[in-house]
Amino acid sequence: MKRLIKFILLFFLIPFLAGGQASSYKPGEKITYAIHYGLIQGGVASLELKTDTFRGKEVWHSVLIGKTVGVADAVFKVKDIYESYMDPVTGLPVFSIRNIQEGRYRKYNEVIFDHTSRSDSAILTSDLTGVHITQPGIHDILSCFYFFRNYHLPYHKSFKEGEVITIVTWFTDELYPIRLKYVGTDEVRTRAGKIRCLKFNPVTEVGRLFKTEEDVTIWFSADKNYLPVKIRFNIFVGAFSCELTGVEGLAYPLETSTRND
User: Fold this and answer.
1) Model confidence over 18-29: pLDDT tens digits?
2) What is the rounded distance in angstroms from the CA atom of residue 66 to the CA atom of residue 82?
3) Cβ–Cβ < 8 Å for 202, 218
4) For residues 176 and 40, what is the distance between their CA atoms, to the nearest angstrom?
C-alpha cells in the first residue's frame, strides 16, 4: 500500500514539477560537432531533438549520429546512430534504437520502456534479449544526458568538487550506471567564442581502453542551456575530442565571451 501511495503521488507531482521548471532544451535544438584525433579531423557528429509520435502519443525524439569522414572513412568506415523517444513530461524514454555500423560489424537493437504498468519497477522489452524487469526511472544512454541537463545541472551552484551524480541507464542490453564526477568550472574555446563550462569526469572502467577512471571529460555550458560543448577521451593510443561546431534552435541564447579569431 505504501508503494502504491508513493507511486500515485509521484505520478501527479512529476507533471507539476516539470511544468514549473523551464526546460534547458526544446524540440528544434540541433548541435553539431567535429571529432578530432590530435590535429586530424576524423569524423563528425550531430545531436538533434524534434517532436514525434510513438504509439499515438506525442514524444520528443532525439537522434545522435556519429560518422567518419575523409581518410578515416576510407580506412575504417563508421556510422553509429542512437535514437531516444522520450516522454516530454517525465523525460523518461519510451523507446530507444541503437544502430551500429563499424567496418563490417553491424548491431541493431530496439528497446521499449514501460514505466507505468508496475509501481515498483520498469519493464523493458528488447528485440534481442526479451523482457527485463529493472528499477523504476531507468534511462537510455541518450535520455540520461537530457535528464542530467534539466534536473541536475540547474542546481550546479550546490555541487562540491568531487561529488558524483549517478544515473542508471540501459545500454547494450544491460544495466549501465552513468557516474558523473563534478570537477569544477572551465572555459572552452569554440568557433562561437569562449564558453564558460561545468566540467565533469564520467567515471570510466580501467582496462582495455582507459588507464584511469578519469580518462573521459565532458564540458557543459554554464548558461541556462547546459549544452554539451566538448568531450575528450584519453585512451591508450592517444586522445580523441568531440568539439562544438554549430548550434541552432536553443532554448536560450548561447552565452559566450570574446569571439575566437
Assistant:
1) 444 579 999 999
2) 9
3) yes
4) 31
Amino acid 235: pLDDT: 66
- Round to whole Å and give the CA distance between 244 and 191: 8
**Is-contact 42 251, C-beta < 8 A?**
no
Reported as a pLDDT band with limits 50, 70 and 90, residue 239 is: confident
Q: State the residue for C-alpha cell 534552435.
A: 249
| Residue where the block lists cell 553539431 | 32
Domain ranges of the chain: 22-248
pTM of the complete model beyond 0.90: no
Q: How many CB atoms lie within 10 A of CB 1?
A: 5
Check: CB of residue 182 under 8 Å from CB of residue 249.
no
* DSSP class per residue in 86-138: E-TTT--EEEEEEEEEETTEEEEEEEEEE-SS-SS-EEEEETTTEEEEE-TT-
Could you tell me which residues are beta bridge partners of residue 57?
A: 54
C-alpha cell at 246: 554549430
CATH number of 22-248, picked from 3.30.300, 2.40.360, 2.40.30, 3.10.50 = 2.40.360
Exposed (0-12), middle (13-18) or buried (19+): which is 258, by Cβ within 10 Å?
A: exposed
CA 254 to chain centre: 19
pLDDT range class, residue 234, cuts 50, 70, 90: confident
CB contact at 8 A, 150 and 25: yes
Cell for 59? 514524444
Task: Report the alpha-carbon distance of residue 256 to residue 190 in Å, rounded.
Answer: 9
Longest dimension (CA), the chain: 63
